[in-house]
């Protein structure tokens, strides 16, 4: 047996099975890759490799289905998906440090910042892509737009950004009023985006995202804290009885379950893999179309009066009404609201539903009285609506809420300042990527094989270099295609000797060819011998 140490890991060794790799480390043997491939069901043939590549490309098309050939800056302000780059515009470590926020469109996030640390902010209204402007470092130019100085595609930087773009802490990867750093791999549960009635500068939120628990003042991890509180209570009760935690028998477990059922009536038990439940009082997702956070409601107090009327859900209070009363009148209003909720709780479900329907009908009737038969506003609806609650609350609305808003001359000016209240917004989506090779050469996904995409990328280079590169690339493609094709058709695994011999031949390395030939001949002799085709390999 050879005493030579095993060769260093190479790319050929990546397809060895885990068991074979472990055996090699233990015995110091490094057997022929081709022989081990034939003996192992875990090794990968050329056909398997090509099939896996097709699967990966299909996954890429699903994850990135849109074309990445065109930057949206030339289209002006849009409601579109926006991304921030923490590599180019890192968040400041201290609040007083200077920070220049910036956002980019979908195409630039892939083509220009694909290797950077990105934050997906999702949709923002009236936003113009900042890529290639002074908000980004000149070392990170836009590769998609036409450079006005050279009249060529790419290397666009230092342009003036759109002064109307608005930014909030989302561009630092911070979300909600709890200022959390969002990690999609760690955070559980659903966050909701506020419709937004103002920017951070005007007292609104700028279309921020919120945890349900934070909207009711319980925090993002309210359920975890509740579980800890219950666990402590159970532990204290156990310590009082026995002083230590005893082994739970089936009988004890049943009794324990019966004893805790009542305490868990309001909140379902959460498994590690389950989504956290909604906090108490939070509406079901099917009951509302969207919402306005308490910040936007406070910045536009005129909309408070719509809470609980037709088209809107009852207010979702951030604080308990009694706790936020600032005056006797506020206290009486809050107390009345509390008594009303308590009285409704005492009623059976059918009676409560009947009252709610009757209340909505009455509100609709009062609102209709403020309009003529032709629909022209003659008087304001607001005097006919209930008195607005004084506490901070978020306002959830239904699909038809726009029809329920007052459009009189006094109210229309307030609505006109926020066009999203007048009509549903159109969201820009990039065109879908073609399945075949890109016609314009900018796509790096969903456009044929890896070789075809390489040729596509070369089209963005200087013309002379691109022609030379394509000629060399096509030559390599012509050489590699038949090499892999023979293995794919035969189903035979690609051996290390096959790869080394082939590339040695391409390099004109006669010594390499000779050594590879000798190795192949030795491998054949061993296959015909008694050792079942296994041989020693002395290394490289």
Automatic annotation (TrEMBL):
Feature: compositional bias, Pro residues: 1-10
Zinc fingers typed UBR-type, residue spans: 69-147
Region called Disordered, residue ranges: 1-45, 234-284, 322-381, 428-454, 514-540
Bias kind Basic and acidic residues: ranges: 352-372, 524-540
Polar residues compositional bias, start-end: 28-45
Any one GO molecular function term: zinc ion binding
UBR-type domain sequence ranges: 69-147
PROSITE patterns given in the database record: ZF_UBR (PS51157)
Keywords: Metal-binding, Zinc, Zinc-finger
Low complexity: compositionally biased ranges: 322-337, 436-449
SMART domains, sorted: ZnF_UBR1
Membrane-spanning ranges: none
InterPro entries xrefs: UBR7, UBR7-like_UBR-box, Znf_UBR
Pfam families: zf-UBR
Superkingdom to which the source organism belongs: Eukaryota
GO CC aspect terms: cytoplasm
Compositional bias annotation for Acidic residues: 263-276
PANTHER family listed in its UniProt record: E3 UBIQUITIN-PROTEIN LIGASE UBR7 (PTHR13513), E3 UBIQUITIN-PROTEIN LIGASE UBR7-RELATED (PTHR13513:SF9)
Entry protein name: UBR-type domain-containing protein
Organism whose genome encodes this protein: Hypocrea atroviridis (strain ATCC 20476 / IMI 206040) (Trichoderma atroviride)
């Amino acid at each position: 047996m050879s005493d030579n140490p095993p060769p260093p890991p190479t790319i050929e060794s990546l397809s060895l099975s885990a068991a074979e790799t472990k055996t090699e480390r233990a015995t110091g043997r490094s057997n022929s890759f081709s022989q081990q491939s034939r003996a192992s069901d875990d090794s990968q043939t050329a056909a398997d490799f090509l099939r896996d590549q097709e699967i990966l490309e299909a996954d890429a098309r699903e994850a990135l289905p849109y074309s990445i050939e065109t930057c949206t800056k030339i289209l002006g302000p849009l409601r579109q998906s926006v991304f921030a780059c923490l590599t180019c515009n890192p968040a400041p470590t201290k609040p007083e440090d200077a920070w220049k926020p910036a956002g980019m469109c979908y195409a630039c996030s892939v083509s220009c910042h694909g290797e950077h640390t990105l934050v997906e902010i999702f949709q923002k209204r009236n936003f113009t892509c900042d890529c290639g402007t002074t908000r980004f470092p000149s070392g990170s130019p836009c590769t998609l737009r036409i450079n006005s100085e050279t009249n060529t595609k790419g290397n666009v930087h230092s342009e003036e950004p759109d002064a109307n773009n608005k930014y909030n802490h989302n561009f630092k990867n911070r979300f909600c009023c709890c200022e959390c750093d969002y990690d999609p791999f760690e955070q559980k549960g659903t966050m909701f985006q506020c419709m937004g009635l103002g920017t951070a500068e005007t007292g609104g939120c700028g279309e921020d995202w919120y945890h349900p628990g934070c909207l009711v003042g319980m925090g993002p991890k309210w359920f975890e804290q509740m579980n800890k509180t219950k666990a402590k209570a159970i532990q204290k009760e156990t310590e009082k009885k026995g002083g230590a935690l005893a082994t739970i028998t089936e009988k004890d477990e049943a009794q324990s379950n019966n004893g805790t059922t009542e305490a868990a009536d309001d909140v379902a038990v959460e498994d590690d893999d389950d989504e956290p439940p909604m906090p108490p009082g939070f509406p079901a997702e099917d009951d509302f179309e969207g919402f306005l956070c308490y910040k936007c409601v406070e910045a536009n107090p005129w909309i408070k009066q719509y809470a609980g009327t037709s088209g809107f859900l009852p207010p979702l209070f951030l604080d308990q009404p009694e706790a936020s009363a600032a005056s006797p009148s506020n206290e009486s209003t809050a107390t009345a609201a509390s008594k009303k909720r308590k009285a409704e709780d005492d009623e059976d479900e059918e009676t409560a539903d009947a009252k709610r329907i009757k209340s909505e009908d009455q509100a609709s009737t009062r609102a209709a009285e403020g309009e003529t038969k032709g629909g022209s506003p003659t008087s304001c609806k607001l005097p006919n609506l209930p008195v607005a609650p004084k506490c901070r609350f978020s306002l959830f609305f239904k699909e038809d809420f726009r029809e329920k808003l007052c459009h009189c001359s006094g109210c229309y000016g307030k609505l006109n300042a926020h066009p999203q209240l007048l009509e549903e917004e159109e969201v820009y989506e990039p065109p879908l990527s073609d399945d075949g090779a890109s016609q314009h050469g900018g796509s790096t996904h969903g456009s044929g094989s890896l070789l075809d995409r390489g040729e596509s990328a070369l089209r963005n280079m200087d013309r002379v270099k691109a022609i030379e590169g394509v000629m060399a690339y096509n030559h390599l493609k012509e050489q590699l295609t038949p090499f892999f094709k023979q293995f794919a058709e035969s189903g035979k695994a690609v051996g290390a000797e096959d790869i080394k011999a082939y590339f040695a031949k391409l390099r004109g390395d006669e010594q390499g060819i000779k050594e590879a030939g000798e190795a192949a001949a030795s491998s054949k002799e061993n296959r015909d011998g008694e050792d079942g085709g296994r041989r020693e390999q002395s290394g490289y």
